[in-house]
Structure formats: structure tokens, C-alpha cells
Amino acid sequence: MKKMLMLILSGVSALVLSGCGVETPDAEGWKPSQKEEFLTILETDKYASICNQQALYEKVKESENSKLMSKLLVSYAKNLANGCIDLESFNASQEKRVEQEIATYYETYLQEVKASDIMRKLKAGQSIEEILKPYVPEYAQFFDLQKRYKLLGGDKNTSKKTLRKIRLNIERLKLMKPGLGDNYALVNIPEYTVRVIDANGTAVSMAVVVGQRKMQTPVFSADLSYVTLNPQWGVPDSIARNEVIPKLLKDPNYLVNHNMVIRKSYDLNTPEISQDSVDWEAYLIEEEDKKEMTYKFIEVPSKKNGLGRVKFIFPNKHSVYMHDTQAKSLFKRKVRTYSHGCVRLEKPIAMLEHISKNYTNKSNEEVKEWYDSLETHHMGLSKKLPVHTAYLTTYVDECGELLVFNDIYGFDKTQRLNF
């Protein structure tokens, strides 16, 4: 019995020493299983991130050289994290637009990808999927559009223009803010649509009006902070100069007819200023001698307020938010680029009900009482809800249908793929 036990132990030792069942990393840190896994990912370009590294991929596929494979892994992770759009040329085009006095903004949320971190994880034995996971977009659209891209890529009837459009939007999804979570609101600007999406899918969807071509709704992300019922509208200085003051000079009753008052600040509790006590012409002089805007126009809360009865605030430097509107007829139009950058909602009450029920501690009765009071109330959130204003000219909807939209701000033209 003792002799048999010694023979078994001897056999086990031989297996261990011979390396059977144990992977030995090569000098670069690659294990055979990691190489096999990476080559499988590359074969289908699972995360659409070979991009500008096609030549390197061909060398890797042919040689399986470990150093080349390491270089490609780092490049693949960077392309996955930060997309394959030529951002240098795009940023230059944005600067030219600003010079042309077009209000445009497109935030790109770039992630830091260090080669040393990638290689450390590789040498620690992590799988390639584990290494790439921090950079994979959480948006379901990333995978939905990829599936459609690969499917249509094999169809001879699909135009190159359509494929490029889909691929460009795949890259845009890489540039959106990471750390998405299960619940978020997505304003898709070219679609003129907002959706509130949770773990079960689309909970709320409605049409929106977005910014004019020269006063574009910016592309960015921010958390919804609070909801204002019966809001006042603090007219921005630019709108005051370009629209309100010229109309006031033509029609002395303009402010009364539009429920507007004048203050030294946007605080309604400060003393009111008489419109006749101010030389408004001084605020319309050309740039060099233009007088600083020291007065604020405020549209007071009412059923006829330009912001409607409710607005949804996600604080940002652009002073952009979602809100109700008096111009309901605009929702019947196919092209809905009419705002100064804010997002006007087709069904603000549906949005209010969903937000108050799922993201605040307020009861329906409390919300209704505040709403009916015609007085301004602010309702804070008890649960996080990120808001993303996005620019997706292709989108796979809730029925699995590929939707294609017009390039209303021209980003399809100014954003070039780097491959």
C-alpha cells in the first residue's frame, strides 16, 4: 500500500514538472490561452476596435509574435476606450464653427489607457475580456449597432454610405460618458426623441424640440438634480439683447403681454425696475461700445410661461435643461430644430409623473398640489438619473428596427473615421 502511494505521488510530481495542465507565460507575459482568446476576439473584431491597426493585425495573425501582440492589445484597448474618430480634425472644425458664430459643443469623454496597466494585468494572468472590460461601453446601442453593422456588411445591397453612418455612431458611443448604470435619460438630438431607460428597457419615450442649427443643443452628460414646478424664466443676456429689447423698443406693451418684469438680478424678490427708466438703445450698440447687461428680464410663473409648467434641471455650463413649452404645434413637424439649445418636451406631465414616482420621495398628491398652486417649487431627487444628450444618426429601436436620421448639425461630415 505504501509503495502504491509513493508511485501515485511520483506520477503527480512528474505531471506538474512536465507542465501538463499548467500554462507557462512566455518572455512577454502571454499565456497560450490568452493568445488564443485575443485572436478569437480579433477574428470577428468583437469590439469594433481594430480600426487603424489593420496592418498590425495582419502581422499578428500571421506570426503570433508576442511583442506585436502586446502592441496590438494596447492599441485595441485605446481604440475601444476612446473611439476611432479623428478628433484633431473634428475639434478644428468645431473651432471654425464657433468663429462663424455657431453655438456648438460636443463633449468627448476620453479615458486614460496605460500600456503598463494593460501589461501588468496580462502578466497577472487576467483574461483578455477582463482586461478590456473597463473600456467596453455600457450602452446597449453599442452592441445593437455592431450586430446590424456586421449583418449589413455581408449584404451586397447595403451602400458604403449606410455602413459608414452606422460605424460612425458605434464610435460615438465609445466617446460617451462611461459608468452608465441601469437608469438614464437619453436625448437623441437627430431623432428629436428622449427616452428614460431602466433595467427593463425604455420606460418613457417622447418627441422633443432641440436647438437651432446655429444654436445647437450641446452633446454632453450630467445628472438630473431637481425638477422645478411652475418655473420662472430668467431670460439669458444674449436673448435679451437680440430679441427682447428690440421687441420692447417697437412695442411698449411687450413686457406686460409676455408676463415679464425687470430686476437687477434673476431674483423676483428684488425691487422691480421700470422699463421707462432705462436707455435700452445703449444695449444694442456694436461690440466695441456695447454696454454691459446690468438688467435681467424675468418671465414670471404662469400657465402661459414660455417654459411651461415644469422643467428638469441637470446643472451644466451651457444652461441647458428639459422643459415644457407653449409651442405644442412644433411637435407635429418632422424637423424640430427651434429652441435656443434647451430640450422642449412633448409630454412633460408624463415625464413629471415618471420622475416623481421613481426618483423622488414625493407623493402624487404633493406633486399635484405644488403644480396646481402656480407658485414655484423645487423637487429634489432621491435617486441618481444621468441625462445624456447624444448625437446618434442611426439607432436600433425597441422593436429591433434600424432607424436612420438626417445629419441636422453636420457632424456626420465633420467627424471622420481614422481608418
TrEMBL record:
Q: Which UniProt keywords apply?
A: Cell shape, Cell wall biogenesis/degradation, Peptidoglycan synthesis, Signal, Transferase
Residues annotated as domain L,D-TPase catalytic = 183-357
Instruction: Indicate the family of this protein.
Output: Belongs to the YkuD family.
Which region is the signal sequence?
1-18
Q: Which PROSITE patterns match?
A: PROKAR_LIPOPROTEIN (PS51257)
Q: In which pathway does it act?
A: Cell wall biogenesis; peptidoglycan biosynthesis
What superkingdom heads the lineage?
Bacteria
InterPro entries in UniProt:
LD-transpeptidase_YkuD-like (IPR052905), LD_TPept_cat_dom (IPR005490), Transpep_catalytic_dom (IPR038063)
Q: Does the keyword RNA-binding apply?
A: no
Task: Kindly provide the name given to this protein in its UniProt entry.
Answer: L,D-transpeptidase family protein
